[in-house]
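Form 7-S
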Amino acid sequence: MQAGSDSYPSADFARFHTFAWIADSPLITPTSRRVEVSPLSLRRIEEAIEAQLGAKGFTEVASRDDADFAVSFTVGARDMIDVDSYPPYYRGPWNWRTPYYGRNVDVYMYTEGILAIDVFDNETRQPVWHGWAKKRITGTDIKDPASAIDAAVAAILAHFPPGSAAAGGR
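Output:
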């Protein structure tokens, strides 16, 4: 799994203590395409974000107006293709007698899942932090999405807030 984040340089994360969801449905979907996500997965994502933020000492409040920051998320998947091309004697057991000619091509198709979490400063109503994780979706992830979701959310929020000990700073 790959994860990373970006933050607005002048944002004051030290004043963030409470959070709320940006809307009743915090999933942000692009208008250009429809994303189909299981309602159970959406619930798991929301609960995982709430648990991770709670573990970091942030308190969830019911009203966005009472929160220091608002949270939303985006989910997506895309089909990917990896192509490997190499001389035949680099494949399998080494054989000094194999002449160098031709190439072997291996094609791998897989689905890459992406989860992004966005944080908005409630005072300015501006985005201040974006974290993401992407991973190759396996059969195990499909059978047990809860553990994949928990791992992705933990990886993303390890970078929040910027400058904290958990994020590698402060």
